[in-house]
Design brief:
Elements: H1 2-14, E1 22-28, E2 34-41, H2 48-51, H3 69-77, E3 80-86, E4 89-97
Antiparallel strand pairs: 1-2, 2-4, 3-4
Length: 100
Amino acid sequence: MIVDEIFSNIAKFAYGHSPGDVTIGILAEQDDPAVEITFIDEGTAFNPLINAPQTDIKSPAAIRRIGGRGIHIVQKLADEIEYERKDGKNILRIRKHIER
């Protein structure tokens, strides 16, 4: 669900109406009960942790503003999220601990 939400937002918004590349890296180590997923794109600078609209999940769906629910779900599911803009690239790292 995390990968789908982040990738679909990059695909829809990072490059406007132009095509663009997205690199997704997955790191899982045998002695670490976690998985780290890194998304890298060269689209418009966007920190979803700060710039995504805040969503009010308690309001009725009919009156909620559009946007922000996806990153809200990602933040609830992930254990750690980091964003940085480096060398013209958006880099989003998400870490999820896996129970054995």
